[in-house]
Design brief:
It is built from five helices and two strands, in the order ααββααα. By secondary structure, the protein is mainly alpha-helical. Strand 1 and strand 2 form a beta hairpin. The N and C termini lie far apart (58 Å).
C-alpha cells in the first residue's frame, strides 16, 4: 500500500508517517518500491504505527519507542525485562501525576488568595511591553487569570 492509504488506516497524516519513517520508527516496513518509484508499505507498517500511537499515549518518548522497538524486534528483551520497562514507565507517570496534582493545588490556593484580595489574576504568555501590561492575558474559567495585576 502507498503512504496515503497507510496514513488513513493508521489514523494520521502522511507527514506524520514520513516523520516516523525518517526517524527509523517504521523499520523495514517500507522496503519495496512500485514501478512509479513510490514506497510500498506492508501490513507490518500499520501494526507498527498502532504500536507507536499506543506507546505515545502511555507516555513513551519517540526515542524510547525507537530503542524499545529495536530491542523488542531483536529478541533481546526477556518477558521479565519487558515487564520491567513497563513498570518503570508506570512509576514515571505516577511521579508526573503527583507533581501535576501538587501544581494544581498551588494554583488553586493562589486563585483563592487572589479572589479574596480583590486583585485580578491573569495568565501571561510573554512579558508585556511597558505601559501595556495585561494585553495578552488568558482568563481562567472563573473569569480571573494567573498573574496579579
Amino acid at each position: 500500500m502507498r503512504i496515503g492509504e497507510l496514513a488513513k488506516r493508521a489514523g494520521m497524516t502522511t507527514e506524520t508517517v514520513r516523520f516516523y519513517e525518517q526517524r527509523g520508527l517504521l523499520g523495514n516496513a517500507a522496503s519495496e518500491r512500485s514501478e512509479g518509484n513510490y514506497r510500498l508499505y506492508t501490513e507490518a507498517a500499520v501494526e507498527r504505527l498502532g504500536i507507536i500511537t499506543a506507546a505515545k499515549k502511555l507516555g513513551f518518548s519517540l526515542a524510547e519507542i525507537l530503542e524499545l522497538g529495536r530491542l523488542w524486534q531483536s529478541g533481546q528483551l526477556s518477558p521479565a525485562a519487558k515487564d520491567q520497562v513497563l513498570c518503570q514507565k508506570l512509576l514515571e507517570l505516577e511521579h508526573k501525576r503527583q507533581v501535576l496534582e501538587h501544581l494544581q493545588t498551588l494554583i488553586e490556593r493562589k486563585l483563592a488568595a487572589v479572589a479574596g484580595s480583590g486583585h485580578e489574576l491573569r495568565l501571561v504568555s510573554e512579558p508585556d511591553p511597558p505601559g501595556q501590561r495585561g494585553s495578552d492575558a488568558a482568563p481562567c474559567r472563573n473569569g480571573s487569570s494567573l498573574e496579579p495585576s
